[in-house]
């Protein structure tokens, strides 16, 4: 008998994770109170079951997959309901929050009697035919969710406390999404100065993997830029305000804010980025 | 008869470029006034010829290869001497300066009657058996130094004005050295949080080219970190103070300043970076 699992919320990642668990025979609960018709449709398509807060708190495992800014509030809300129950779930916090935030979440969850696993999802939402994304888990309770590895998730145990998985998520995103940010900033600046073609040629000849990567990563980033703003600020927080590199990630937050506004508005810079990336892909 | 060429200054890049030109039959002048014994030895080993400012100003082509902070002062000094001569050289500014700086240098050089070529050297100093680095050149006078392509330099013409080659240099370094900076910052933060091994494993599995690149780029950066501080500030200036990404490069300047101080001092963070890179190379 597979464990009962709840996934909150049924966003792009949450619903795709739920669909994979459903494929593996799980019943996956979620909360649809006050959600849009589009979200309800997505949750239904993923085979998720609408449930009350009390039912969700009664699941064996609760996966928290929300925008980073909502992770703490969700933990508080869950803890309030769990407090009243005798059965205590394991909450797996999969959110891109920094180490300090996950420690605060741990305090809240543990005080309700539930256990907490720190998790980092690295990769795109599950798709049929792929094994990813990777679910890195850390903390004392990580072994308690090993069953997820038999239910279609690519589970990877980090030997480390609560905070280690979040640190992995922050540092991986800091390199990976940071590189996309550097590419966007420099493509725009080179385009303005008439050096975009020369930049592309030089990357193709002396840094071909970065050239290929930007060809895909730059256009993929544009519709997500608005979400990356908060994620970059989480990374700045992960470094700590006194660290000299924190300024780099505050700069990325402002860059993605600027790009998100351009995508919503004129789209001039977005068009320059897309044009550069298309030529990278054509040259592959 | 090859053109007479002067290279200022005989640093690591300048002397290696000079050595390649000398191999191809050129006489290469340089200024050794007030230079250290080590510099004089390096210039002699490269086959360079000590010359007065007046002799240098009389060369056909003058390559300016100095730290970015000295580029403007060198242009002023050369222009003062050239002003008095009837023969006017082509000055090739190879420095990592931003577009605004190269335009100021153009004003200074053109007012002396000399021509200016904007050049970007991308790659390590010439070594026997290699064809690099690439010398990208832009500006109206770029065609006037095409001969350098027959004298052992990998010359690449950019169709663009003064500023295009500098923009290429800034944008390429902004991606390339920026990536190394992101790697250093995130390796240190992951190490502090006990997630360095997990970060390395995840990079090896989902971003193998970045993993391989950091294995080499991180230790190579440490002894140069002090030089990258000014270069990052040039890139911030290239973006312009009002651009949201300028903050990213001011952050990199502070990070490299911090790392350079660590290299000179305790070396604690340098050791963590080196340890990570060694494990990347071992896993290759």
TrEMBL record, chains A, B:
Cross-referenced SUPFAM superfamilies: 6-phosphogluconate dehydrogenase C-terminal domain-like, NAD(P)-binding Rossmann-fold domains
GO molecular function, one term: NADP binding
Gene3D superfamilies according to UniProt: N-(1-d-carboxylethyl)-l-norvaline Dehydrogenase, domain 2, NAD(P)-binding Rossmann-like Domain
Domain 6-phosphogluconate dehydrogenase NADP-binding: 5-142
Coiled-coil features, chain-numbered ranges: none
Native source species: Bradyrhizobium oligotrophicum S58
Protein name listed in UniProt: 6-phosphogluconate dehydrogenase
Domain Phosphogluconate dehydrogenase NAD-binding putative C-terminal: 190-258
Top-level taxonomic group: Bacteria
